[in-house]
Amino acid sequence: MSNGNLRQRLSARDTDVLYWKERLQIAVDVAQGLEYLHNGCKPPIIHRDVKTSNILLNKKLQAKIADFGLSRDLAIESGPHVSTIPAGTPGYLDPESDVYSFGIVLLELITGLPAIITPGNIHIVQWISHMLKRGDIQNIVDPRLQGDFNNNSAWKALETALACVPSTAIQRPDMSHVLADLKDCLEMVGPMRTQRIDSYKMGSSNSLKSCAVDLEGEMAPHVR
């Protein structure tokens, strides 16, 4: 597609940096696609390889999910001959749910960082957990935005992303809930790009710190 894939765009030079509202709209587009696969298809379809390089952007920056080579329908996935071999890409990998992988994509949109941060091969969730101890969203959101984002929206987006990435699938929301939360994030962003509203920050920063502590004990797959 005309704007390549999301990984390429997030890695672009400063003049092509995605605005905060554009990032949220891309997240909503992808969440809508996954919600349709999970709830609109009969039987439901699990993509199994959701990642930024598999999200294509058209000239209007509308996002489309690509590469269904690993996808499985739930009727097959729940049958008696299900393979237990994980499918997908390191950093995004979870054999049970697309929700985890989407959470990683959302963290990449928020931070501008890849799923595996080099040097050090640090998983993005581990990095987020460390940064949350400072309690400052400015240290987490992509610095190339130069603070030009809605604080309320950023905290809620981060909270939504972290809800997607516990190691146990039963702890994660379904894509319908994720989509609803992201639409709320988008509604918080008004016509002006620069907004500094801190009412959401106080409550969410405390809950996110608690979430970070929980995540540190169980988190992210090591890169081998």
From TrEMBL:
It comes from the Eukaryota. It holds the Pfam family PK_Tyr_Ser-Thr. GO terms for molecular function: ATP binding; protein kinase activity. Residues 1-186 form the Protein kinase domain. SMART domains: S_TKc (SM00220). This is Protein kinase domain-containing protein. It comes from Vitis rotundifolia.
